[in-house]
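Reading is simple: each integer encodes one residue's backbone shape. An example follows:

___
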Amino acid sequence: MTPDTKEGISRAIQSLGRRYVQYINRTYQRCGTLWEGRHKASLVDAEHYLLACYRYIELNPVAAQMANHPGAYPWSSYSTNAYGKTNKLITPHPVYEQLGTNAKARRENYRKLFYTALGRDKIHAIRSAAQFSTPLGNNRFKAQIEKATGQKVGQQKLGRPFKTTSDKAANEN
């Protein structure tokens, strides 16, 4: 999701969660929550990783053997992106629109993205960013985020930092 406002994704997930939980609880005569914890989100360097994320997400039902092709999974955006199936919930991302000069070319080029496997390094980067809610992108992208927010981004090592030789010298004086 690419939000229009700072709070856009959080509000959308919150609204979805409330409505879906009510539906499930009414339908199955149950009560309580469905999910543990908060949703996790990561900023994505669209230029370098967005289409890899699309592939990762749309290939998950295939990897989980829930479908034999990403287009066969009913809740996937693959049919919209690859074949032009109408879906009011999907707005083409500018990176997707750069796949071709017209809709037919974009759909064909999108299908071609799935001809090759997604590399292990990209899969690891996507999973790690999702698991730890860290930005997904190169060092330049992360530096831009740090500059804009004034905060360090990425996974930090837990615990006390190791002493450097200059720290030891300062302690000896």
Observations:
- The two ends are 55 Å apart (CA to CA).
